[in-house]
Amino acid sequence: MLLTFSPELQRKQIRGIQQHLAKKRRALEELQAKLRRSQKPGAKGKGYSQESLWKQVQKICSGQHIAKILHVAVSKVRGQLQLSYRTDVSALPE
Q1: What is the pLDDT along the chain (94 residues), one digit of tens a residue?
Q2: First to last CA, the chain
Q3: What is the pTM (predicted TM-score) of this model?
Q4: Among 14, 57, 61, 78, which one is least packed by beta carbons within 10 Å?
Q5: CB distance 77 to 50 below 8 Å
Q6: How far is CA 41 from the centre of its chain?
Q7: For 65, phi and psi rounded to 5 degrees?
């Protein structure tokens, strides 16, 4: 068996993961904004339940290793749902 390593292929793969991650972060930012709007007084619609919000998060974070890199939390603080996330930079390929 012969194994080869291609630095160019590795760079392209890393760039692809970074682009994918940026897209997922933008989607989470949009979801955060929708959540904030839905919780304002006089907001239209039924809003989010903790379960429905978590389903949206799972939908966004599915795919290429994203769950290992993006850590998302849905919590309730003083009766308000909150969505927070962070990127685990140690999980990113170098």
Answers
A1: 888 889 999 899 889 888 989 999 999 999 999 999 999 988 888 889 999 999 999 999 987 678 888 999 999 999 999 999 999 988 877 6
A2: 26
A3: 0.84
A4: 78
A5: no
A6: 27
A7: 60, 10
